[in-house]
Specification:
By secondary structure, the chain is α+β, with helices and mostly antiparallel strands. The chain has 14 helices and 38 strands. It has three domains: 236 residues, alpha-galactosidase from lactobacil brevis (Beta-galactosidase, Chain A, domain 5, Distorted Sandwich); 227 residues, Aldolase class I (TIM Barrel), CATH 3.20.20.70; 101 residues, Golgi alpha-mannosidase II (Immunoglobulin-like), CATH 2.60.40.1180. Helix 8 runs parallel beside helix 9 and helix 11 packs parallel to helix 12. The structure holds (2R,3S,4R,5S)-2-(hydroxymethyl)piperidine-3,4,5-triol. Its EC number is 3.2.1.22.
Length: 734
């Protein structure tokens, strides 16, 4: 009988509030190593008790006192999802205005369901309702057991008579209590994305947000680390990571209350964003991606990287090819021959994919600069008389794959598209439309624009059966927002509907083209979030290809997003963005820590550089499975200010590893680099071989065999110490 009931439950795939849960009033969301614990109080509030290392026994949480917390004026404990109302005077997760003008909301437990999606994922839905109004709020948790990641989102619906004004609806809320809290977040600008800052939070509210609508991660990012009781350490201490999977406006707020509790709230930005929700309709928030480790931020990153490869990338299990992208090598100034020459040269040193960047389209207004023709996605016949198919086939015949650039959300004021569809352009009533990089933005809240974007993608891919990669760019953000499509009352839906429109276009594109690789590029790292990433294979972290700057950008980026998806290209010298001159070895050694590519005119490589590049590309192919699929262990942070950076990747079976070290400044003749390795098997014997040598070996033990525990306990030293010196070591089990 018991077996039969179990079979029925499994067939239904879900269990509603198991009897044990009802008895104890406790709801847990668990992965292999983590638990979130919630309890239902006597007055039917759902209390947020805990998020951290996993529990065997959760019953002590039934104790009505929340760890003997004094009365903080809010209630005896933080609730799972605080709505504005009652005694909650802090920033609320939810703020509504009901039909009758009432500004407050109360949420109590209705029921909950637990469903196994498969043998790795469990979905828990906790349903809350307002006892006075027909308003229903569902909290959704998806727990990824193996990866120790929990994704959280919220949906709201109602049966009030008229529209309900949803003024703020966060994806997630997390209350924490510690002696101190350290927030790591990111700021920057074009070509200097993901600059890391770590700061101790003080009483009051810290907000990290974007109101740019598009390119929301160019100057800040919706990912953060929170470390308790001290700055985040690689291998020690409690660290939470949060990352909002949303490509539109976002807001994360960190508020310390009068009892010293930290209230973390993250979701879509409520700025000019009231959503008028019709009765019977549902508003769904984006997902907040959470992970945690009590052993430092290294594990937090490894959790997110595993999760990304398994769930958050289009083809996370593919090893990605070595690319030559035409942008910095040719910009807009190319002919058919420029491109075929680049392909010939790329083939000669082992490149596996050629990508034709901006400048290939537009006839009435040829795209010979960034001033015209976005929207007119037809091949420029003068520049490329034999079309894209000729070039793509040329590449394939040389053994390379072929990719091409588009920017389908945008339109140039001087374009046939702008002439034909002025109503498709984002604008604020009759105000002038302000161009940025000489372009305007198409209004993706309009389904006709979504259709256009999907059609553009289809048509570009159809230019040749040999196209296997698309670089999707987006070079401006939203200002003076407004939509000709949305009604006057619903202009504030723009921010949400734009991003939902973008995702809906992506869904259709992915359905039509499941096997195409797509790069997420938005003036560099302008759209670096897990919401967009799942439709893509990789991202362009920054338009800054200067290797020294890339060390900082890639370090921060890879705290959350995996190396395999981090397009990192070797460019020419002096560097086009910074004018700095780094040796080719240093440029390769940096780019090889991500998805290696090149961003130069191969003809500019001369003398010894050509054989070096050929050898480095060969070496990359050797280490690619370790870099793209392995575990990241960080050894020295460039942000420490000591002038070093170092990290390693280790294969899952710990048989192979690759180590990188960089000197970022002149260290003086007597100072040398030393570090202990991490993550190896202490019992294994490893041969250490230096790769990409440009002269003498920089490691005294080059070619020798060392025990794993020696490498991790005694460590290694290197003879690097001048600016731009670097070392790459391949470490293989013997
Ligand atoms: C910005 C991108 O980040 C660059 O790589 C390049 O594609 C240009 N746009 C082309 O306009």
């Amino acid at each position: 009988m018991k077996a039969l009931l179990l079979t029925v439950a499994l067939l239904l795939g879900c269990i509603t509030a198991s009897s044990q849960d009802k008895d104890t009033g406790i709801i847990t969301v668990s992965t292999n190593d983590l638990s979130m614990v919630f309890s239902i109080s006597a007055d039917k509030k759902v209390v947020y008790n805990y998020f951290g290392d996993k529990f065997q026994h959760v019953s002590p949480f039934l104790n009505k006192k929340y760890k003997e917390q004094p009365d903080n004026g809010i209630g005896y404990a933080p609730v799972i999802y605080p709505a504005y109302g009652g005694r909650f005077f802090l920033n609320p997760a939810l703020k509504l205005t009901h039909n009758d003008g009432v500004q407050t909301t109360e949420l109590i437990y209705a029921d909950h369901q637990v469903k196994n999606i498969d043998n790795n994922r469990t979905e828990t839905v906790i349903r809350l309702k307002d006892p006075l109004y027909p308003v229903f709020v569902n909290l959704n948790f998806t727990a990824y057991r193996k990866e120790n990641v929990i994704c959280q989102s919220v949906s709201i619906s109602h049966q009030e008579k008229n529209k309900l004004a949803v003024e703020n609806i966060a994806s997630a809320y997390l209350p924490l209590h510690a002696d101190s809290y350290y927030l790591t977040h990111f700021h920057g600008a074009w070509a200097s994305e993901m600059q890391l800052v770590e700061e101790k939070l003080t009483p009051g509210v810290k907000r990290v947000e974007s109101k740019k609508g598009v390119r929301t991660t160019q100057s800040e990012n919706s990912s953060f680390l929170l470390s308790l009781n001290g700055p985040a350490n690689e291998d020690r201490g409690e660290v939470y990571a949060g990352s909002l999977a949303w490509s539109g406006n976002y807001l994360s707020s960190f508020e310390i209350d009068e009892c010293g509790l930290l209230h973390v709230m993250s979701g879509m930005n409520d700025f000019a964003s009231t959503y008028n929700l019709e009765p019977g309709k549902t508003l769904q928030t984006p997902e907040m991606v959470w992970t945690y480790s009590s052993t430092g931020k290294g594990q937090v990153s490894r959790n997110l990287h595993d999760w990304s490869r398994n769930y958050a990338l289009a083809h996370g299990d593919w090893e990605l090819p070595v690319v030559l992208n035409s942008w910095e090598g040719a910009y807009f100034d190319f002919s058919e021959k420029t491109i075929t020459d680049m392909i010939d040269d790329a083939a000669a040193f082992g490149v596996e994919m050629f990508v034709l960047d901006d400048g290939w389209f537009g006839n009435k207004y040829p795209r010979n600069s960034d001033k015209v023709s976005l929207g007119d996605w037809q091949v420029n016949k003068k520049k490329l008389p034999r079309g894209i198919d000729y070039l793509a086939k040329y590449a394939v015949d040389k053994g390379l794959k072929f990719g091409i650039w588009i920017e389908p959300e945008m339109v140039s004021p001087k374009s046939e598209l702008a002439e034909k569809h002025p109503e498709w352009i984002v604008k604020s009533g009759k105000r002038d439309i302000i161009p940025m990089r000489n372009q305007w933005l198409l209004d993706l809240s309009n389904p006709a624009v979504q259709d256009f974007v999907v059609k553009t993608f289809d048509e570009v891919v159809a230019l040749s059966p040999h196209i296997s990669y698309i670089k999707w760019d987006a070079n401006r953000h939203v200002d003076n927002f407004g939509s000709d499509y949305l009604s006057k009352e619903n202009q504030t839906h723009f921010w949400i509907e734009y991003t939902k429109g973008l995702y809906s276009a992506y869904e259709r594109i992915r359905e039509n083209h499941p096997d195409i690789m797509i790069q997420l590029c938005s003036s560099g790292g302008g759209r670096l979030d897990f919401g967009a990433l799942k439709y893509h294979d990789e991202f362009w972290a920054s338009d800054n290809t200067n290797s020294l700057d890339r060390i900082f950008i890639q370090y921060s980026t890879n705290l959350f997003f995996p190396a395999k998806a981090t397009a990192a290209h070797v460019s020419t010298t002096p560097n086009h963005q910074t004018g700095m001159m780094a040796p080719l070895k240093f440029r390769f050694d940096v780019a090889m820590t991500g998805r290696l590519g090149m961003e130069l005119q191969p003809k500019d490589l001369t003398g010894d550089e050509l054989p070096f590049a050929e050898e480095a590309v060969k070496n990359y192919k050797r280490i690619r499975p370790i870099v793209q699929m392995g575990d990241l262990y960080r050894l020295k942070s460039p942000y420490d200010g000591n002038g070093w950076a170092s990290h390693m990747y280790i294969s899952k079976d710990k048989k192979e590893s690759v180590f990188f070290a960089y000197s970022l400044k002149y260290h003086g003749r007597t100072t040398f680099f030393e570090t202990k390795l991490k993550g190896l098997d202490p019992a294994k014997m490893y041969k250490v071989t230096e790769l990409n040598k440009a002269g003498n070996s920089t490691f005294y033990g080059d070619g020798q065999v060392f025990p794993g525990d020696y490498l991790m306990k005694a460590g290694i030293s290197l003879t690097i110490g001048n600016t731009y010196e670097s070392t790459v070591l391949l470490i293989t089990e013997q």
